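Quick one:
INPUT:
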């Protein structure tokens, strides 16, 4: 099989890239290790930045998001039981869209298949070859047969645990890491959210987040040990801890059946460069942020916006400047999101190694955000989303 762009991974990055390329008349093939059922039901992110929601709508895959998504004009930071609202609309004129990542994936798969797009699910032993030549190849097995995809470009959208990043020789790539001394235990519950907006709670017992998926489905998280044993957390224990951390006078967290629970490790990661020859990394294959700033999915979309534009100019006009500058262009926004995600995480979580002095400095930083329009505006600007393609 031959195509212009071989895309490894059918997460939001790979699927949106395939969708945008198709709209530009550029063909691609997406190779996905998992089943369609699996990728369409993997519960992950829930907040779309303003420019991301706009891109989905403008590119024709936003209809269900606009019907079912929840526009949010602010978030609440709760510190020691006292609420402080960050008013996105007043501070930035923008809002975010609460809409589950798995629905974005479903919408993109439906759009690709309706347009005759090629997505190979359950592709096994995917491997990339000859990325430093002008004829790179992806090999894989499907339905027991060895297969080969000849491409002009390979897009590595295979997530943090994928194989594409390793195709850049270790001697030619630099990784930046930060592991956090905690994780998030997340639940999806059939319980009406107890707040109309997200609540980020900083508490002596640890961080907690109240989010939602609909007026009847809550998405909640609590800070836990990085190696937490999920089996040690009964539903009752989870709810008890959420009540303690999210509690304040006049606020009643509503319980309900927990339909999904899991633990997400917290890390910051960036690999540079994000490209080698005809291989371009995007999304979690190139960077990971702690979910405190709701940036992971949104950063993946920003990479797609940069790469799809550069590929369109390459295939239509033979231009290579955009591709040559791809990684540098993305990294300007990646590092802004890394900083914001690290800052929100540092601001709101309990760090076991913190001294009482550091805990008081944390409280003072939060108080400064609440008291300063400038600080609140900086938080709001980062949360609603910077421009998808940041100028040099
Ligand atoms: P993805 O990981 O989504 O997709 C990569 C795809 O590549 C997967 O479908 C995988 O099966 C496939 N793949 C992997 N190896 C392959 C191979 N060898 N061959 C073929 N296919 C291969 N972000 C937020 O903003 N908020 C959150 O609350 C949040 N929660 C998260 C919870 C978890 C458990 C995880 C892991 C991530 C979470 N994230 C969150 C971040 C997440 O949303 C990512 O940023 C987003 O999925 C990035 O999209 P992709 O880059 O497409 O990577
Ligand atoms: C979610 O709804 O899953 C969510 C929202 C905000 C975050 C992280 C996760 O910062």
């Amino acid at each position: 099989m031959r195509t212009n762009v071989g895309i490894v991974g059918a997460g939001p990055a790979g699927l949106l890239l395939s969708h945008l390329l198709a709209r530009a008349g550029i063909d691609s093939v997406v190779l996905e290790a998992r089943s369609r059922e699996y990728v369409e039901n993997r519960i992950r992110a829930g907040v779309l930045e303003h420019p991301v929601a706009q891109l989905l709508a403008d590119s024709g895959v936003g209809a269900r998001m606009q019907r079912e998504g929840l526009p949010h004009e602010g978030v609440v930071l709760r510190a020691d039981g006292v609420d402080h609202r960050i008013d996105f609309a007043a501070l930035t004129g923008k809002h975010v869209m609460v809409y589950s990542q798995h629905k974005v994936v479903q919408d993109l798969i439906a759009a690709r298949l309706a347009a005759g797009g090629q997505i190979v699910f359950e592709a096994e032993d995917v491997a990339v070859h000859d990325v430093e030549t002008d004829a790179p190849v992806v090999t894989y097995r499907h339905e027991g047969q060895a297969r080969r995809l000849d491409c002009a470009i390979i897009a590595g959208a295979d997530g943090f645990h994928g194989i594409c990043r390793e195709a850049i020789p270790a001697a030619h790539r630099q990784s930046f890491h930060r592991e956090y001394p905690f994780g998030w235990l997340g639940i999806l519950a059939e319980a009406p959210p107890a707040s109309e907006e997200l609540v980020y709670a900083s508490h002596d017992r640890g961080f907690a987040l109240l989010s939602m998926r609909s007026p009847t489905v809550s998405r909640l998280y609590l800070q836990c040990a990085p190696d937490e044993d999920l089996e040690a957390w009964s539903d009752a224990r989870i709810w008890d801890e959420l009540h303690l951390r999210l509690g304040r006078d006049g606020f009643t967290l509503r319980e309900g059946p927990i339909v999904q629970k899991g633990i997400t490790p917290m890390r910051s990661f960036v690999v540079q460069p994000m490209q080698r020859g005809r291989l371009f990394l995007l999304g979690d294959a190139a960077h990971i942020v702690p979910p405190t700033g709701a940036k992971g999915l949104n950063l993946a979309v920003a990479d797609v916006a940069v790469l799809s534009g550069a590929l369109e100019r390459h295939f239509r006009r033979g231009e290579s400047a955009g591709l040559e500058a791809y990684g540098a262009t993305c990294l300007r926004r990646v590092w802004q999101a890394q900083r914001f995600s690290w800052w929100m995480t540092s601001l709101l979580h309990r760090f076991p190694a913190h001294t009482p002095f550091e805990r008081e400095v944390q409280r003072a930083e939060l108080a400064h955000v609440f008291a300063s329009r400038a600080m609140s505006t900086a938080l709001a600007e980062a949360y609603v989303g910077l421009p998808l393609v940041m100028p040099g």
